[in-house]
């Protein structure tokens, strides 16, 4: 049996997410936006809660199409508040719309959101060599820096903890512990 990171439970969904997605470098803007939305909704909740609702989020938010989300009218916002399949937090739903608009602004400024976000790590994932749970940080000076930049641009729910979780999810950092079969060999 392959050993996984400490946070993975016996949930098949969690295991698949860990094995196939978490820490894998993501460069396409569509997936980067999806994780940006999911991480903002996760703030204050467990990630498994978000994974269990991911398909519902996908349906509710037009397959995470940021161009559509950026233009959501008030009626769509109101319908999302009534959707029991997602996290019905008024501020988080509103932030998804605002963040989609700002995501497009970054694309226009940098050519893509991918170029913008990956520039923080010079286009190459940071591979950490953490052995134990206690070594894995919730934030870093880099997540502080990215958070500050995004907040300055108007993004919502982009605290340093959310950003570090985002960095882990999209592979800007690889925090698979050294005993995990997904940790890259040297």
Automatic annotation (TrEMBL):
Record-listed Zn(2+) binding positions: 5, 18, 176, 180
First-level EC class: hydrolase
Keywords associated with the record: DNA damage, DNA repair, Hydrolase, Metal-binding, Zinc
GO molecular function ontology, one term from the record: metal ion binding
Domain of life, source organism: Bacteria
Record field: catalytic activity: Hydrolysis of alkylated DNA, releasing 3-methyladenine
EC numbers for this chain: 3.2.2.20
Signal sequence residues: none
GO BP field: base-excision repair
InterPro entries: Adenine_glyco (IPR005019), DNA-3mA_glycosylase (IPR052891), DNA_glycosylase (IPR011257), Tag (IPR004597)
Keyword Glycosyltransferase annotated: no
Role played: Hydrolysis of the deoxyribose N-glycosidic bond to excise 3-methyladenine from the damaged DNA polymer formed by alkylation lesions.
PANTHER family, A to Z: DNA-3-METHYLADENINE GLYCOSYLASE 1 (PTHR30037), DNA-3-METHYLADENINE GLYCOSYLASE I (PTHR30037:SF4)
Protein name in the entry: DNA-3-methyladenine glycosylase I
Organism annotation: Polaribacter glomeratus
């Amino acid at each position: 049996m392959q050993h996984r990171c400490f946070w993975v439970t016996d949930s098949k969904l969690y295991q698949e997410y860990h094995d196939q997605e978490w820490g894998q470098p993501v460069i396409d803007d569509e997936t980067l936006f999806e994780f940006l939305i999911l991480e903002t909704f996760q703030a204050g909740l467990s990630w498994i809660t978000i994974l269990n609702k991911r398909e519902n989020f996908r349906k509710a938010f037009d397959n995470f199409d940021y161009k559509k989300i950026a233009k959501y009218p008030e009626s769509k916002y109101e319908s999302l508040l009534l959707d029991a399949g997602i996290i019905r937090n008024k501020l988080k739903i509103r932030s998804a719309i605002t963040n989609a608009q700002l995501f497009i602004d970054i694309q226009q400024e940098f050519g893509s959101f991918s170029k913008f976000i990956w520039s923080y790590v010079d286009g190459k994932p940071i591979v950490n060599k953490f052995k134990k749970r206690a070594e894995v940080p919730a934030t870093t000076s880099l997540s502080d820096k990215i958070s500050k930049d995004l907040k300055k641009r108007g993004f919502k729910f982009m605290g340093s903890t959310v950003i570090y979780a985002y960095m882990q999810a999209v592979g800007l950092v690889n925090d698979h512990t050294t005993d995990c079969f997904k940790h890259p060999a040297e």
